[in-house]
Amino acid sequence: MQKKLIAEEIDELRGTTQREALSLLKKAQVRFGENQEENKLKLIELKMGLDAISGNVKTTTDLKASISTANSFKNISGKGDDARLDVVKTLTNNLEKRGRIVTQDDIAVLLTCAIQSLIVTLAGKPGSGKSSTVSELAHVLGIKEGNKYAHVQVQRGWSSDRDLLGFYNKLSLCYEPDRFGLYKLLNGLQEIPSEHQFSIALLDEANLSPIEHYWTDFMGACDNTDSFSLSGVKSGQSLKLPKALRFIATVIMTEQQNLFRLDFLIEALLFI
To answer: What is the CA radius of gyration of the chain?
Structure first.
C-alpha cells in the first residue's frame, strides 16, 4: 500500500514537471519570436542608415531608364510596300556606312520576325557577327540613342529569373536590379506610349544556361502577354510586359554546345 502511494506521488510529480517544462518552453518560444522580429527591424533600420551614409540609397529614378520618345527617323513619303522598302533600304545603307554589310532581304526578314515574335534567335559559329549585327541594328534604328536597348551577357549557371532581372530585397525593402539594365528598361517603358516603345534586349550567348530557367517569366508571354507580371520598385507594385519590347537571342552552334529545348524553339524564330 505504501509503495503504491509513493508511485502515485512520483507520477504526479512527473506530470507537474512536464507541464511546467512545456509552459516554460512556450514562453521561451514567444520571447524568441518577439526578439527575432525586433532584431530584424533593427537590422533593417541599421542597413538603411548605412546606405544613407555611403550614398547607396536607391531612388525610383535609379531603377528606371530615361526613355526618349524623340523620332530620329527621316519622314517616309511612300505608303504600303514602297514605304517598307524605303525603311529597309535606309537601314541597310546606314549599316553599310558603319561597316556592317548585310543584304536588304536579311534586314527585312529580321525586322519582320522581330515585329511578329517576342523573341528571335540568331544561331551561328563563334565570331560570325551575330551580336555585333544586333548592336549595329539597334544603333541605326535609334534605339541605343533613346535608351531602349539592353545588352545582356548570359552567364553559365543561371538558374532563375533573379539572374536576368534581379530581385526584390525584403531586407532593404527595395528592388535590386540586374547589372545589365534589363529591369530598368522594363520599368522605364511602363508609361511610354506603345508607338514609342519599340526596344531590343539582346540575350548574348543565350544557350550558355538553359533559357527555360532564367527566361521563364517571358515564356508564357509568348502566347499571352497579360500573363507576365514582375515585382515593381515598391512592395505590392507590378510591372507589365511592354507591347513593343523584343528579345533577340544569339546562340553558338558547336558539336559540344546544346541549342534549346523543343518547347522554346516552338516559340522562337530561329535563324542559322
So the answer is: 29
What is the rounded CA–CA span in Å between residue 70 and residue 149?
15
Short-list 157, 150, 165, CA closest to 199: 150
Q: Are 203 and 152 in contact (CB under 8 A)?
A: yes
Q: Residue 253 in 3-state DSSP?
A: coil
The span from the first CA to the last CA of the chain, in angstroms, equals 96
Q: How many CB atoms lie within 10 A of CB 16?
A: 10
Q: Determine which helix (DSSP H) or strand (DSSP E) holds 200, and give its type and residue range.
A: strand 199-204
**pLDDT tens per residue, range 135-194:** 999 999 999 988 999 999 999 999 999 999 998 887 777 788 999 999 999 999 998 998
Task: Give how far the C-alpha of residue 189 lies from the chain's centroid of Cα atoms, to the nearest Å.
Answer: 14
C-beta atoms surrounding 253 within 10 Å: 14
What angle separates helix 130-140 from helix 80-97, to the nearest 10 degrees?
A: 120
Longest C-alpha distance within the chain, in Å?
115
pLDDT tens-digit profile of 87-131? 899 999 999 999 888 899 999 988 888 888 899 999 888 888 889
Residues near 270 by Cβ (< 8 Å), separated by ≥ 6? 121, 123
- Residue 169's φ and ψ, nearest 5 degrees, are -85, 110
Grid cell 533613346 — which residue?
146
